[in-house]
Amino acid sequence: DMSNCERNKKLLLELVRRPENRRCADCGAADPDWASYKLGVFLCLNCSGIHRSLSSKVKSIKLDFWEDELVEFMKSNGNASAQALYEKAVPPYYYRPQHTDHVVLREQWIRAKYERMEFTGQTKYPPLPYTTGFYEGMLWKKGKENTQFLKRKFVLSEREFTLTYYNKENESKGPKAVISIKDLNATFQPERIGHPHGMQITYQVDSHTRNLYVYHDSPEEIVTWYNAIRAARYAYLKTAYPTGSDKELIPKITRNYLKEGYMEKTGPLVSCQKHKQSYIKLIFMSHLNHPHVHYVYDCLFSPL
């Protein structure tokens, strides 16, 4: 009846105001107004959509009807107890996505926690690339001269602190590039790369910044690559700063560019054939290890 329905809604609203339930269990967004009554967690709208796609049972706190036993279930569970179980053994370097992160990261975090049970501390997880410090596989890499993506073999070695990739199938010719983990940053850039799993790898060569644009068709695989790179970066930082605490080191592992945008570069006029403009587009970034601003030519959007 109506009074029961109102009472249950009131109880749920009281539960979601508890300190441990005030943020989405998966991405930390404030004021979650959805819940999974299979897992007993309070969720934001975006994460509830991901849970629904994994056939988890979700309801709106305010809009849906809640049976008494479901309210009791939410009351006896909640975000804190779920996190104690499903996030018991999250490695320090593993990236915990925020609500502002790309969907591939948020979805894989949710799948890793509840579907693959990677962090309960009782299974074969976390995956080997994170714990052995060695990972290899194929990624689609954007060609330097043209916009075509080609399959390339990548090898990540924590022992050597390197990420290596090979251009041709014939590896006897040696690697195309050996990138030091010391100078490497990885960040998801699906819009720029034109693929929902697009990742940008940035590194230093002498005083220049280079970018690799890669993706993998499997969302699990690209997020595994991302966290394997983070694992290697974390291991590197532990050797470079042996007295550094996790609190100090973890923000340094990888970072999304804080400031990145387009500016018109003044100077000699350069004609852009595609748009007949008398300036070129540059991307200005502040880099991981080099706080000064620098720019790279934007060759992705328009050929110069």
UniProtKB/TrEMBL annotation:
Chain ranges of the Arf-GAP domain: 9-120
Record keywords, A-Z: GTPase activation, Metal-binding, Zinc, Zinc-finger
Give yes or no: UniProt keyword Metal-binding.
yes
Q: Does the keyword Zinc-finger apply?
A: yes
Q: Name one Pfam family in it.
A: PH
Please provide, alphabetically and separated by semicolons, the GO molecular function terms listed in this UniProt record: GTPase activator activity; phosphatidylinositol bisphosphate binding; phosphatidylinositol-3,4,5-trisphosphate binding; zinc ion binding
GO biological process terms, semicolon-separated: heart development
Q: Which domain of life is it from?
A: Eukaryota
What GO CC annotations are associated with the protein? cytoplasm; plasma membrane
Domain PH per the UniProt entry, residue ranges = 132-234
Alphabetical list of PROSITE patterns matching this protein: ARFGAP, PH_DOMAIN
Record protein name field:
Arf-GAP with dual PH domain-containing protein 2-like
Organism, by scientific name, is Echeneis naucrates (Live sharksucker)
